[in-house]
Design goal:
InterPro entries: GreA/GreB_C_sf, Tscrpt_elong_fac_GreA/B_C, Tscrpt_elong_fac_GreA/B_fam. This protein is α/β, with parallel strands linked by helices. It is 29% helix and 29% strand. A hairpin with a 5-residue loop joins strand 7 and strand 8.
């Protein structure tokens, strides 16, 4: 399996969850949730063993890649959005962290600043965006 790249925060959150589950494991030893806790712990351990952490420092980037923080502008309404493209384990749209497997991220990956890309939305229309800024680790 390829090396996973996680943000500093994502790595920290997984480590905290693993610690929490380890402490709670004894409480659930006679509960139906025991299997869930054991499988989740194994999943987190597997993720952490196969991952590396992106550095905090960001520099202007030339191309969108996993880990990039991108600012895009919708071409019709001129609304701007900033997203960080992360591994699906870390995706949290409320924090503007979107999965590299999301439609916007897939369309933006590999593109340069001022490139335009389109994303098909459920109603069948296309939304078009221009990349305004790229910050890479």
């Amino acid at each position: 399996m390829a090396m996973l790249k996680l943000t500093q925060e994502g790595t920290r959150n997984l480590e905290k969850e693993l610690q929490y589950l380890t402490k709670r494991k004894k409480e659930f030893r006679h509960s139906p949730e025991k299997e869930f806790i054991q499988s989740r712990m194994a999943e987190i351990e597997d993720i952490l063993s196969q991952s590396s952490t992106w550095p905090i420092v960001r520099e202007p980037g030339y191309f969108v890649e996993p880990g990039s923080a991108i600012t895009i502008e919708e071409t019709v309404y001129k609304e701007r959005y900033t997203y960080t493209l992360v591994h699906p384990f870390e995706a949290d749209p409320r924090e503007n962290m979107i999965s590299i497997e999301s439609p916007i991220a897939k369309a933006a990956l590999g593109k340069a600043v001022y490139s335009t890309f389109s994303v098909r939305v459920p109603l069948g229309d296309n939304l078009t965006y221009t990349i305004i800024d790229i910050q890479n680790c």
